[in-house]
Design goal:
- The chain is an alpha/beta fold.
- Helix content is about 50%, strand content about 15%.
- It is built from 18 helices and 13 strands.
- The strands form 2 sheets. The chain has a 7-stranded mixed β-sheet.
- Strand 9 and strand 10 form a beta hairpin.
- The longest helix is centred in the middle third of the chain and has 30 residues.
- The radius of gyration is 29 Å and the shape is flat.
- The N terminus is likely disordered.
- Bound molecules: guanosine-5'-diphosphate.
- Guanosine-5'-diphosphate binds next to helix 8.
- Exhibits a very high intrinsic GTPase hydrolysis rate. Involved in the addition of a carboxymethylaminomethyl (cmnm) group at the wobble position (U34) of certain tRNAs, forming tRNA-cmnm(5)s(2)U34.
- Belongs to the TRAFAC class TrmE-Era-EngA-EngB-Septin-like GTPase superfamily. TrmE GTPase family.
- This is tRNA modification GTPase MnmE.
Length: about 475
């Protein structure tokens, strides 16, 4: 796509979803000719003489033919989404009307917008920084409360503000370092090295925290992947069905939701949990024996959470311990689930629990829940533990990274700051120090787009948007 800087041409696109049976569609124009072009086909007040943020009723005509009765909303730059003149035309939602109208506006001088071009203009014209623009796409895609919250925070500048602060501190310091260079041979130090070291350490800590938040942010954005594993007949498919059925009972009350959209995932208090690779599980028993240890491990690798299910009448503590150890990888959340307590006279912690937790707790897991998948007994407790584990990944008041591009930039910034720190340790000369600081700055700035971002990168970012956004 073209990412030509602030172009003067006026773009047009349908801003609402195409092909949906809503009552109204909105066609949006942005650019210096937006109002003139609309005025040329509008029959009503003279739009050229109206104030910004006003709405006008009238008809759109192609020659003598009336195409539709519409409402026109006017936004004069810079008080608009793109910072340019913007017109939004609310029409009846007919495919025919929309096509005629867009064709007419193009005939009068507008150009069909490319994917993400409205938001790209908002970015290029300074209406928002790059991370905020990316959050617009996330906001549109958000399907649950938690991802909505994160995207909204990012769009409103949550992450950018902190990054800006870091940038300014680094820029101030580089300025001092460069001042030293201006003095050449003279042995002067304007930049207090001890103070700088403290700053670098603080920044490193903050960036490391942001990087850590990605595990949580990513899980929230895409749903937390959960693997249910255990021996044959442990009750895995029963548990999955119980979890899904309870969810379905709640969700099916909401008009318009279909079974398909909620299948294999549940929403607990705004967080989506996805049960991965359950195709086999629901029909045949997906057992470690049946799928093999290698496959079970592969499956667990894709998961963030392992629900390891066992039946104490059919397993020994040693078996459970060996399998969990075999499946474990660093960072995996393991919840041990003892099933079929209805056959065991209710929930009582027993010797086998103790034998298992003695070995597995601390290093592999810290939760054991006893349930009856069949009777839905204590399944709510299991849900509570799941939720607590995921919530526990987020630090209070922390900014949360959800974007791979951002986490990569942060990792590179962290590395460069590591070089700065090492450089300070060995009394590296100012010019070499400044080089590493600039590298860190470049990576931090690439998140907000405060440097010239590569056109290809812009193309990739905005190309992911829908047309009209
Ligand atoms: P999977 O092989 O691990 O998927 O196990 P299934 O879910 O197919 O369950 C195996 C058998 O155990 C079935 O007959 C289930 O009805 C039964 N089962 C599963 N959970 C429970 C439970 O909590 N209590 C009792 N009594 N039986 C259960």
């Amino acid at each position: 796509m073209s990412t030509g800087l602030v172009s003067q041409d006026t773009i047009v696109a349908l801003a609402t979803s195409p092909g949906v049976n809503g009552a109204i569609a909105v066609i949006r124009l942005s650019g210096s000719q937006a109002i003139t072009i609309t005025n040329a086909v509008f029959n009503g007040k003279d739009l050229l003489n109206q104030h910004t943020h006003t709405i006008h009723f009238g008809t759109i005509r192609d020659g003598e033919e009336i195409i539709d009765e519409v409402l026109i909303s006017l936004f004069k730059g810079p008080h608009s989404y793109t910072k340019e003149d913007v017109v939004e035309i609310s029409t009846h939602n007919s495919k025919y009307i929309i096509e005629r109208l867009i064709a007419l506006l193009i005939k009068k001088g507008a150009r069909a917008a490319q994917a993400g071009e409205f938001t790209l203009r908002a970015f290029l014209n300074g209406g928002m920084d790059l991370s905020q623009a990316e959050a617009v796409a996330d906001l549109i895609a958000s399907e649950n409360k938690a991802s909505h919250e994160i995207a909204m925070n990012q769009m409103r500048g949550g992450i950018s503000n902190k990054l800006q602060e870091m940038r300014e501190q680094l820029i101030n310091f580089t300025a001092l370092l460069e001042l030293e260079l201006d003095f050449g041979e003279e042995d002067v130090e304007f930049a207090d090295r001890a103070q700088f070291e403290a700053l670098v350490q603080e920044l490193k800590m903050h960036i490391a925290k942001l990087i850590q938040s990605f595990a949580y942010g990513n899980a929230i954005k895409h749903g937390v992947p959960v693997a249910i594993i255990g021996k044959p007949n442990a009750g895995k498919s029963t548990l999955l069905n119980t979890l899904l059925d309870e969810e379905r009972a709640i969700v099916s009350d909401i008009a318009g939701t279909t079974r398909d959209t909620i299948e294999e995932s549940i929403n607990l208090d705004g967080i989506t949990f996805r049960f991965i690779d359950t195709a086999g599980l629901r029909e045949t028993a997906d057992t470690i024996e049946a799928i093999g240890v290698t496959k079970a491990k592969e499956k667990v690798r894709q998961a963030k959470v392992l629900l390891y299910l066992y039946d104490d009448k059919d397993s020994t503590a040693d078996e459970v311990i060996a399998q969990v150890k075999e499946l474990y990888y660093d960072g995996l959340i393991v919840i041990l689930v003892r099933n079929k307590i209805d056959l065991q006279g209710g929930y009582h912690s027993n010797e086998m629990d103790t034998a298992i937790t003695d070995v597995l707790f601390t290093n592999y897991s810290d939760s054991l829940v006893a349930i009856s998948a069949k009777d839905s007994e204590s399944v709510d407790r299991l849900k509570g533990v799941l939720l607590d584990k995921i919530r526990g990944m987020a630090v209070e008041d922390q900014q949360i990274i959800t974007n791979t591009r951002h986490v990569e930039a942060l990792e590179q910034a962290l590395e460069a700051l590591g070089q700065v720190e090492a450089g300070l340790g060995i009394l590296l000369p100012g010019d070499l120090l400044a080089h590493h600081v600039r590298t860190a700055l470049r990576h931090i700035s690439s998140i907000t787009g405060d440097i010239d971002v590569d056109r290809d990168i812009l193309g990739t970012i905005f190309g992911k948007f829908c047309i009209g956004k």
